[in-house]
Amino acid sequence: QVQLVESGGGLVQAGGSLRLSCAASGRTFSNYHMGWFRQVPGKEREFVGAISSRGGSTMYADSVKGRFIISRDNDKNTVYLQMNSLKPEDTAVYYCAAAVSRQGYGGVYYMVPSNYDYWGQGTQVTVSS
Length: 129
Description:
The protein has 129 residues and is mainly β. The protein has strands spanning 2-7, 10-13, 18-26, 32-39, 46-51, 58-60, 68-73, 78-83, 92-100, 118-119, 123-128.
């Protein structure tokens, strides 16, 4: 089992920044590919970005590319989502998720929520115009 706890959400004005954190406990954090997703009421959970188990590669949704940065500190069992130049359309509940790293899988595989094994409870991000 892996427990994930997000923090850092809140209310920010458009153009501002927030940094979300996701602290993991349980099994070996460095064995997991980590993803960030977001969801608004009435819509499906949307991929935001992901980072490989050792942090060597990242990928982002087109909607956040160039504005959001994912990083991780495996010594602290934590993954981060730095969100810059926030827009009202970024308003959502943000979730971190962990997927066992699988050899030969990459790219699109980690964009799919059902491929993740563990989820946090989510943190609300609200961007005012």
